[in-house]
Design a protein that fits this description.
Blueprint: E1 10-12, E2 19-20, H1 23-30, E3 34-40, H2 45-62, E4 73-79, H3 84-92, E5 99-101, H4 107-114, E6 122-126, E7 132-134, H5 138-144, H6 148-156, H7 179-233
Protein name: Nucleoredoxin like 1
Biased composition (Basic and acidic residues): 216-234
Pfam families: Thioredoxin_8
Length: 234
């Protein structure tokens, strides 16, 4: 799925409209995530009605004000507007963590053709491997809200990071979803090695103490025999 936007420029819907255009940035924001492509137009009344629903859906899964551990989800707005001003009107109503393609980017139309989008609003949901989870999830989002994400998650076989509660991640975007599994695996193996080391060390210590006790006993016996010999010479 990362390949879908490599060598492209994704823009963040924040005040500065930061651009993500390096391979590392694109990989960090898309790898091991469920991707939602939102095709819409400001002239469409149904789109205008759906945007608040989609915003609520997205906030409950990504916004720290609603959820402690944001889900592995990315939303990209693919504008089918006729002007940049129309696109801006839609973006003003959308969450600041939403990404979008610039209006002058012709890739918007290519994506529309690629996913055979004929009606708006349309939300195409993709697995991390790029395969389609849902050709249009608008009705599911309206009907089930954020609960439908769990079905997508199971189908995509995503692994949550949130079960590693004590881990401090420097940059969550640059970590693999399977990273906690590897950490847990290695931690378990380290514990096993420590137990084996302590067991071996304890055994050696015990054998060493027995050897010292034997040497001490032999020395005491020799000292007693020496004392007897001295007594006899007297």
């Amino acid at each position: 799925m990362v390949d879908l936007f490599l060598n492209r420029v994704l823009v963040e819907n924040n005040w500065d409209q930061d651009e993500l255009n390096t391979e590392r940035e694109i990989t960090g924001i898309l790898e091991n995530r469920i991707l939602m492509l939102f095709f819409a137009s400001s002239e469409c009344e149904e789109c205008q009605e759906f945007v608040p629903v989609l915003n609520d859906f997205f906030k409950r899964l990504k916004d720290p004000a609603y959820i402690e551990y944001p889900k592995l989800l990315t939303l990209i707005y693919i504008s089918l507007d006729q002007s940049e001003e129309q696109q801006e009107r839609v973006l003003k109503e959308m969450h600041k963590k939403v990404l979008f393609l610039a209006f002058e980017d012709p890739y918007r139309k290519e994506l529309q053709t690629m996913f055979k989008v004929k009606d708006v609003p349309t939300v195409v949901v993709l697995r991390p491997n790029g395969s389609i989870l849902s050709p249009n999830a608008v009705q599911d989002i309206c009907r089930f809200g954020s609960d439908c994400f769990h079905n997508w998650q199971e189908s995509a076989e995503l692994i949550e990071r949130s079960f590693m509660l004590n881990e401090e991640f420097d940059d969550l975007n640059l970590r693999s979803a399977t990273d906690p599994v590897r950490r847990l695996k290695y931690k378990t193996e380290d514990d096993k090695r420590k137990r084996r080391w302590w067991k071996l060390w304890g055994k050696k210590g015990k054998d060493g103490n027995e050897g010292e006790e034997e040497r001490d006993g032999a020395w005491d016996a020799k000292r007693k025999e020496g004392d007897k010999g001295t007594w006899r010479r007297r």
